[in-house]
Amino acid sequence: MSDPHDLVAFLDLGWQRLTRGVADRRAAARHPVFATVSSDGAPEARTVVLRGANRHDGTVEVHTDGGSDKVTSLRSNSRAQLMVWDDKAKLQIRLSTRVTILHGGDVADRWQNVPDGSRMAYGASPPPGTPIPNAHAYTKLASLDWFTVLTCRIESIELMQLIDPHRRAVFMANDDWTGEWRVP
Ligand SMILES: Cc1cc2nc3c(=O)[nH]c(=O)nc-3n(C[C@H](O)[C@H](O)[C@H](O)COP(=O)(O)O)c2cc1C
């Protein structure tokens, strides 16, 4: 490693590992934990696929079913955190974000790029989370009507690296991503 006190290089590493998750199915950042807050204040965490990471815009992108509980939660509280543990880089990445929910005409172009086999993730009858009498008592709709893009605008990035000695830093959008070291 070059200078371990170089904040810019540390942030570069974080973005490198994130963008790799979009391109490489086997990269750790492919499957972040996506945490939201329900309307009654309860934490909700689940695995998602990282579909986009744009350092220039300071955004990451997740695709989901518009009928899922996370979308209901995001309508009442737009804050979400994404968390990745990248074992190869010994790096935990936490992205604190505000989410914009896009659907319908706004995502029709992206829908064209969703492979047929993946479309079944969008839309179900009865809707996701509904109690059913047996494991298979549902139909997948594979419909643009339910295809929903979550654009997550990053407010802060926290990096924690378990090398010896440990390193931790926080980078804020409103501080132009300057970053500061924190006690791990
Ligand atoms: C490996 C893996 C990848 C997943 N990817 C997504 C995804 O990209 N989008 C999504 O909405 N759900 C995805 N899921 C399902 C979610 O973890 C979750 O079960 C589902 O979205 C319902 O969550 P909710 O009821 O909290 O909204 C994935 C699950 C696994 C195990």
From TrEMBL:
The keyword Oxidoreductase applies. The keyword Flavoprotein applies. SUPFAM superfamilies: FMN-binding split barrel (SSF50475). Keywords: Flavoprotein, FMN, Oxidoreductase. Residues 18-102 form the Pyridoxamine 5'-phosphate oxidase Alr4036 family FMN-binding domain. GO terms for molecular function: FMN binding; pyridoxamine phosphate oxidase activity. It comes from the Bacteria. InterPro entries: Pyridox_Oxase, Pyridox_Oxase_Alr4036_FMN-bd, Split_barrel_FMN-bd. GO terms for biological process: pyridoxine biosynthetic process. Its cofactor is FMN. This is Pyridoxamine 5'-phosphate oxidase family protein. It comes from Marivita cryptomonadis.
